Amino acid sequence: MAASMVRTCRFVWRHGSCILLRPTSLYLSLRxxxxxxxxxxxxxxxxxxxxxxxxDSFPENAAQDRLPQLLQSGAQTVYCGFDPTAxxxxxxxxLAIIGLLHFRSAGHHVLAVLGGATAQIxxxxxxxxxxxxxxxxxxEANTHSIRESIQRIFTNHELQFHDSSRKLGTVTVLNxxxxxxxxxxxxxxxxxxRHFRMGTMLSRHSVQSRLKSADGMSxxxxxxxxxxxxxxxxxxQIYGCKIQLGGTDQLGNLMxxxxxxxxxxxxxxxxxxxxxxxxxxGDKLGKTAGNAVWLNRDKTSPFELYQFFLRxxxxxxxxxxxxxxxxxxxxxxxxxxxxxxxxxxRLAHKRLAAEVTKLVHGKEGLESxxxxxxxxxxxxxxxxxxxxxxxxxxxxxxxxxxxxxLEPGTTxxxxxxxxxxxxxxxxxYRMVVDGAVWINHSRxxxxxxxxxxxxxxxxNGLTLLRVGKKNFYIIKWLSx
Length: 480
Known about the structure:
48% helix; disordered N terminus; 5-stranded mixed sheet; Structural Genomics Hypothetical 15.5 Kd Protein In mrcA-pckA Intergenic Region, Chain A; 11 strands; 6-stranded mixed sheet; single chain; Rossmann fold; ATP binding
């Protein structure tokens, strides 16, 4: 199955962030319309709405007849964009990917568009100031990294969560630089620019909020909506894409794409919005807020991702189970009932953390997260012995990592001094005697004790040294 996934998956990226709209009469219309239908495609929209993944649609009449009829007519193509403004996506972007995964599971074809071009322009939506200019080579490197991340998540979903009795739609990852790189500015403005009206562009909320700020808005940022609209048009013409997913802060850009396509071809297309993912204090999770939980392992380890969801407040766990997992809603309700009966076991939190970690990092990533959890919070020596060098360094990110030659007769005090864990002289010696040093979760108060294999040196050749409460040192022993 993994091989077939690799063959069928082509990948592209662009703008993608999530936002929250208040429930309106449109929500009730969506709920009623999708609930009343028994078709598979309409069931998908109703299910997404119940889970909270689908928030709103544009234009509004799409909630009545046209969008449901379009989905009933057969497999459709849906796209979502992600601008590579960093070398990794984050949890705030994950819900957009999950939205694509739901459509793909229902048999629709999905496009993940990376904004190798638009990242160099900068989306002003939700920003109070202009982004720093991104160099083309930085955008290219970020695009490559995010492409791999998205491919990994789609592969994990197919291997771990997909019902093999249902036919998957295709997934294609694109880079919008591929259709802009040969455009000249005069040709592009002559071709596309004449179909945009200044009054409409100026009325967008993202523009208005910036025009009123002290720094104002640059021409570069102002044109962002033109490029996103053209992206939708290009995908509509080449791939037959009629549905765009985006955060609610992308609503103005969705509208621009709809209007441009309607002018150019008269074809009806649709925008669907997904909610904002916020922290427990209401802050948007993302790069700008400085609280990003990343999807790439080198920035946020599987253990850290697992712990992030495990530590969510009780008030968020049910909503997050619906948003970030593929568990049937009836199973979510059973989990919540079990949690209410015995809150101390935190069964819902553990299932949430496990499901998300397995989606983002695969089965191996989840096992790694559990090993790290046992090693750190349950003082499990067995878990330490099963951990790789990489996992130890992820778990203790700030801890110095040392490779030392294991010489005959090496003692506890020798080890502490070689990694500069204690001061030289009597003071350091006294720290060991007083019990300030721990090796592999065991207190060590004999400075002159020779290191003992399986006690001080684990079977994987590692030693975890701790001095005081928080000062960790990782030692990889090299044999003579």
